[in-house]
Design goal:
The protein has 16 helices and 13 strands.
Length: 401
């Protein structure tokens, strides 16, 4: 995640948004493909998953998979690959596993553009963990124009990352996708205000201006926060905001939503002391990045799903044990990333995925059914689910045992 709000009125209009792939770099990874969205990547200020309060408006791109699109996707993809001289499996030939067995090629869709937030996955490619498990993994960029749930549901990709809340909404709209692991154990989504404002709690939002990322997970968490603390939304001046922090820097917005290692870190880097308001402290919890695939993949190819997860877990374990090397892998695989900013990202990411030495996450990727239930109830209370369904249909724990 990070805004799929325009309704697509025809398949012809949809295809260009699903298929075109960005120019590729030749990575330093020996076995698989890491593909950034452009030769130069600017670290994003904002990184949130798309969700909506007016779900009919911003979730209209989440629809049941269409077999009609697939031939068109394949044709356009092949033309694009031929035109840009890509480094995909079509060009490098059949990948072979040590011992002579052919690797299973899969595409994995990130939820946003490449950064150290995905260090474990990038490392799993670079260090050969996917190859070790019989997989030729091709990493695809996420972000605007590349909705992971739609691309996986349509078969363009096999695995992806998306917000747990986004997946639940998709499921309520008949999209047959399931999470089989999570990355972040605790969401990095927070709200922050200048220390000079004295704002340290959502209970102090009344009388102040709060930035709202309309249709994002941040908005869902904000609504849940003020609901829990019985804050009248009419007492708050809610202002729609985008990625740019300029309104916060200029003092026009008192409270800003963002990731603790992105926007909050950026504000501090600009010399602005801030108070961080963590929704988790108030019982507002959800999984920000879940690893998911289709119901069909889980039903028909469980061994592949298990192998994919095992390799991903090994990548995150390696990154946690070799953070400096993991950072180098990310920076060498994708040009244009800011080393200082990526180190802040990685330092904030690792504890939320693998835990800390005194309290490690075992197994990496574990999921708590109670978190899924709370998220489902939160979405239902905000009337974001198009239909009701057993929450257990949205996730499986079978690969985490």
């Amino acid at each position: 995640m990070k805004d799929e709000s325009k309704k697509l009125n025809s398949q012809a209009a949809r295809a260009p948004r699903l298929v075109p792939r960005a120019p590729r770099l030749v990575p330093r990874a020996p076995s698989s493909v890491l593909r950034p969205p452009s030769p130069t990547i600017r670290p994003p200020i904002s990184r949130s998953h798309t969700l909506t309060h007016s779900h009919a408006r911003t979730l209209n791109t989440l629809r049941p998979p269409s077999s009609v699109l697939r031939p068109l996707l394949a044709l356009l993809a092949s033309l694009l690959l031929a035109g840009c001289g890509g480094t995909g499996s079509q060009n490098r030939g059949a990948a072979i596993k040590p011992g002579g067995a052919q690797l299973q090629h899969v595409r994995f869709r990130m939820s946003w553009i490449p950064s150290s937030e995905y260090a474990g996955i990038i490392a799993a490619v670079h260090e050969g963990f996917y190859k070790k498990h019989g997989i030729d993994c091709e990493i695809e960029t996420g972000g605007p124009g590349f909705p992971p749930i739609q691309l996986v549901a349509d078969g363009a990709d096999q695995f992806g990352l998306a917000g747990g809340d986004t997946l639940l909404v998709a499921r309520s709209r008949g999209i047959p996708v399931q999470a089989f692991a999570t990355e972040f154990q605790t969401s990095p989504q927070v709200f922050f205000a200048r220390k000079s404002s004295g704002i340290t709690s959502p209970a102090q939002f009344p009388g102040h201006t709060v930035g709202i990322k309309v249709g994002k997970t941040a908005e869902t968490m904000y609504r849940a926060l003020i609901g829990k603390l019985h804050v009248d939304p009419k007492s708050v001046t809610e202002v729609p905001v985008t990625a740019s922090l300029q309104p916060f820097y200029a003092g026009r917005v008192d409270v800003w939503p963002g990731f603790v290692f992105d926007e909050a870190a950026d504000a501090e880097a600009h010399g602005i002391p801030i108070n961080i308001i963590d929704p988790a402290k108030y019982g507002v919890v959800l999984y920000s990045d879940v690893i998911f695939t289709t119901d069909k993949m889980i039903r028909t190819r469980p061994a592949l799903v298990r192998s994919f997860l095992a390799a991903t877990q090994e990548g995150w374990k390696w990154a946690s044990e070799h953070p400096a090397d993991a950072l180098k892998v990310v920076l060498s695989s994708y040009r244009g990333l800011d080393p200082k900013h990526e180190k802040i990202r990685l330092d904030g990411t690792l504890p939320r995925i693998v835990g800390v030495p005194a309290h490690p996450v075992k197994p990496i990727g574990r999921m708590d059914p109670a978190v899924w239930t709370k998220t489902y109830q939160m979405l239902a209370s905000q009337h974001l689910l198009k239909s009701t369904f057993p929450v257990t249909q949205a996730y499986t724990l079978q690969f985490l045992k």
